[in-house]
Amino acid sequence: MTVLDRFRLDGKRLFITGGSRGLGREMSLAIAEAGADVVMVGRDADSLAATAADIRARGRQCWTLTGDAGTPEGCERACAEALALGPIDILINNIGGRRINVPVEAQSLADWQAMIDLNLTSTFLCTKLVGGQMVARTKAGEAAAGRIINIASMSGLIANRGIGGRHYEAAKAAVIHFTKAVAADWAPHRVTVNAILPGFFMTEPNKRWARENPAMVDNIRDSVPIGEAGQPEDLGPLAVYLASDAARYMTGSALLIDGGYTIW
Questions:
Q1: Which helix (H) or strand (E) holds 193?
Q2: Cα(255)–Cα(264) distance, integer angstroms
Q3: Please, is 165 exposed, middle or buried when counting C-beta atoms within 10 Å of its C-beta (0-12, 13-18, 19+)?
Q4: Domain range holding 247?
Q5: 51, 44 in Cβ contact below 8 A?
């Protein structure tokens, strides 16, 4: 086996939340190119269909589930539907976002809870349900190892300047520590749990935000040592690594990919 062979994902199946757009789309495509089939859930049927077509064009199977995994009910439903299709080997808990940009003193409890559900509860539920099946399979004697990748954020380590909605920082910090704690629990069962912490990436929401707040976005970009925002496709290779046998000895890690923003 060559070193590149260890990155292959042939015969594996990925379940990803929010897999049809932005960072999720690029991770889905990258993992499909490495050989895995893909099950994805998202709210927009058109973007699901478009990404599924691109995955199938790469010679892989793709199943799409239309629903809102950002709510507990929608998340549980999506996990059940994904598991009904067959065993899942790789889980990427990708959905999330700030969405609400208000000061703490002005934020309602209902909005706080909705954002915690989006950014944290969804990760818990998918890990419990899909990851739990990975653990059950190894307990039953299956040799296959499971891979869980949680998409946190550099915002789980810092407080972003000039931005409201601290639900996001709080939830992403919790995702990071949840990753470490579950990794400790499940390492004996050969299920690894790692987190990716993206910095400022030019996803569609951030492109829209850049048009509305150009000065603030320029300030963020100027604070990145590499000198530019990340592109969604930059995340694909890291996801492939964490999903593959190449990362078999890595668990409980939180990997920053932020162009150096958090160095300063």
A1: strand 191-198
A2: 17
A3: buried
A4: 4-258
A5: no
pTM exceeding 0.70: yes
- If the chain, 264 residues long, is cut into consecutive pieces of 10 residues, what is the mean pLDDT of each piece? 96 97 96 98 97 98 98 98 98 94 94 98 98 95 89 96 90 98 97 97 76 77 91 96 97 98 93
The pLDDT value given to residue 209: 67
Which CATH number belongs to the domain containing residue 235 in this structure?
A: 3.40.50.720
Residue 66 lies in a domain: yes
Within-domain flag for 264: no
Do 199 and 261 meet the contact criterion of CB atoms below 8 Å apart?
yes
Q: Does 58 fall in a domain?
A: yes
* Kind and range of the H or E run holding 15: strand 13-17
| Residues written for the chain | 264
Nearest partner of 25 among 48, 7, 45, judged by Cα: 48
Q: How many domains does the chain have?
A: 1
* Residue 214: inside a domain: yes
Catalytic residues: 168
